[in-house]
Write a structure and sequence with these properties.
Elements lengths: L1 H16 L10 H13 L12 H4 L11 E13 L4 E13 L15 E5 L16 E3 L2 E3 L1 H4 L4 E5 L3 E13 L19 E3 L8
Antiparallel strand pairs: 1-2, 2-7, 3-6, 4-8, 5-7, 6-7
Amino acid sequence: MRAATMITLGLASAAATSPIDANFRAGAHAHAQNIRAALLANYDPMVPPASDRAATGTQYSATGTDVAMQVRFFKVLAVRASEGIMQMKVWVRLQWRDDRLKWTPSSYGGLTTVRFKGQHADSMVESEIWVPDIQPYNSATGMFRSLDPSTIKVSSDGDCFYSRPGSLDVSCKFSGLVAFPRDNLTCAIEFGGWALSGGHQ
């Protein structure tokens, strides 16, 4: 009984010293709706965000926005060496800054994040905000079709985070086939912009 009392006191003390995050308080849904309405009022998702590249001394382009990309490989689903195809289970994560999506949290109940619709391959629904146009150049199936739909998490400073699970299907010029199966097969995957060049993203 004594130990249980001590645990209860500890929980009560922790709750008293750490207030609930604004994104989880009563009224957060109304504030999120107001933020989304204000940000999307004059927003064009076809236009890439402005950049501070000129300020940071980037030589390549002063108009493009920098995009960070991470591909997490979970499992190789299939390797068809005779067809030059490899299929993998992945998470693809993109992160970028869009200053058009900034807001002052104190004006909206302290909210620091909201969500926007991402791309959806199975319908005509387009992303509500600009999304980087990045594809594997040797894809057998484009990522637009092979990744699951998801929402984009946007922070009050304009930081955008887009994480999508799914599969990555690529065409491979496998090296290591000469001594197969006594060699290691390798397949290079190169990612880059498709419709938009590196001058824009």
